[in-house]
Specification:
Layout: E1 14-15, E2 18-19, H1 20-30, E3 35-40, H2 44-51, E4 60-65, H3 72-78, H4 80-83, E5 88-91, E6 95-97, H5 102-111, E7 115-121, E8 129-133, E9 139-144, E10 153-161, H6 164-171, H7 182-191, E11 196-200, E12 205-207, H8 211-222, E13 228-229, E14 232-233, E15 238-240, E16 243-245, E17 250-252, E18 255-257, E19 260-262, E20 267-269, E21 272-273, E22 277-279, E23 284-286, E24 289-291, E25 294-295, E26 300-302, E27 307-308, E28 311-312, E29 317-319, E30 331-332, E31 337-339
Parallel strand pairs: 3-4, 7-11, 13-16, 14-17, 15-18, 16-19, 17-20, 18-21, 19-22, 20-23, 21-24, 22-25, 23-26, 24-27, 25-28, 26-29, 28-30, 29-31
Antiparallel strand pairs: 1-2, 5-10, 6-12, 7-10, 8-9, 8-10
Helix pairs in contact: 3-7, 6-7
Protein name: Glucose-1-phosphate thymidylyltransferase
Organism: Nocardiopsis kunsanensis
InterPro entries: G1P_thy_trans_l (IPR005908), NTP_transferase_dom (IPR005835), Nucleotide-diphossugar_trans (IPR029044)
């Protein structure tokens, strides 16, 4: 996620003007989970400040410090005190699920399996952990980012686990990547006759490992936008489709086409905001046209005729004039600037 991850925890990058992690916590809360352990590393202070005690999501958050990135299996191991002997849900914080977790959790409880894995048919499963099934649908092999995948079933990064996993993460060795892999722990369980099942993802799944993934997640999330005009939209502006203009936002002599969200304190002046665009809090969009993009808080776009498929970091500045028919595509980190010649 460079350049953004230099200054911001990946899990706090926005999808529809809310950090990815906020969507995760909302899904977890809706599934019925009330006690949440958040494993944090070097960006722990940012995450603590953003999430707090979890009350805004209807959950109680306990933080577990992982001083070095030693893998998901290691994260489970160091969370033993928090988890106790309860069944639990493991959700990687950089995943976005369109339909949430409620059905997965319900089926996992009913299954009686020692572990349940949420999976998705992937075009390139070698980027992910991969599950191989037998003829009855049971998992017989789990591999982490295999060079030659035995199936296309990618592990989404959501697991329903029983306390049996604790012995597994204590028993498996560190991988060649220098990590305790959750996939190795799952294979340890399978090899000892424990039952591991899968559930397919319903709706879209986005693993936000890169800018394109975040833009995809933004498109998916904005598909659920409802029309709500809380801000100040003047009579010379047009609003078409599902648009959320937050309280404190100002829209003047502009055209908005949904789905899109305009954050609090943002100013849209003499501009066109096209569909699948998120404008963050305090942004200024003036004399410009922008679409299918994410603009983080306090960024400014001025006199740019065609900005599309872009992700702009906090307090970045993009200025024109620009009249290029094909449009411009930019990826800017926090506090960066760009000048576009005509």
């Amino acid at each position: 996620m460079r350049p953004f991850s230099h200054t911001t925890a990946k899990q706090l990058l926005p999808v529809a003007n809310e950090p990815v992690l906020f969507h995760v916590l909302a899904s977890v809360a809706l599934s019925g989970v009330k006690d949440v352990g958040v494993v944090v590393g070097t960006t722990g202070d940012q995450i603590r400040e953003a999430v707090g005690d979890g009350s805004r999501f209807g959950v109680s958050v306990t933080y577990v410090d992982q001083r070095k990135p030693l893998g998901i299996g290691h994260a489970v191991r160091i969370s033993r005190g928090f988890l106790g002997d309860e069944d639990f849900l493991l959700f990687l914080g950089d995943n976005y699920l369109e339909k949430g977790l409620t059905d997965f959790v319900s089926r996992a409880v009913q299954s009686g399996f020692d572990a349940n894995l949420l999976v998705h048919g992937a075009r390139d499963p070698s980027r992910f952990g991969v599950a191989e099934l037998d003829g009855h649908g049971g998992v017989v092999r789990v591999e982490e980012k295999p060079a030659n995948p035995r199936s296309n079933l990618a592990l989404v990064g959501v697991y329903a686990l029983t306390p049996a996993v604790h012995e597994a993460v204590r028993s498996v060795p560190v991988s060649s990547r220098g990590e305790l892999e959750i996939t190795d722990a799952l294979q340890w369980m399978i090899d000892r006759g424990l039952t591991v099942g899968t559930e397919p993802v319903t709706g879209a799944w986005c693993d936000v490992g890169g800018v394109e993934d975040l833009l995809d997640a933004n498109r998916v999330a904005l598909g659920a936008t409802r029309r709500l005009l809380e801000g100040d939209v003047d009579s010379e502006s047009t609003v078409v489709g599902p648009i959320h203009v937050a309280e404190g936002a100002v829209v003047r002599r502009s055209h908005l086409y949904g789905p899109a969200v305009i954050g609090p304190g943002a100013v849209i002046d003499r501009s066109t905001v096209e569909g699948f665009t998120s404008i963050g809090a305090g942004c200024g969009i003036r004399g410009s046209r922008i679409g299918s993009s994410v603009v983080m808080e306090k960024a400014c776009v001025e006199r740019v005729n065609a900005l599309t498929g872009s992700f702009l970091g906090r307090a970045s500045v993009v200025s024109g004039p620009s009249t290029a028919a094909g449009g411009h595509r930019l990826v800017l980190g926090d506090h960066s600037s760009a000048w576009l010649a005509s």
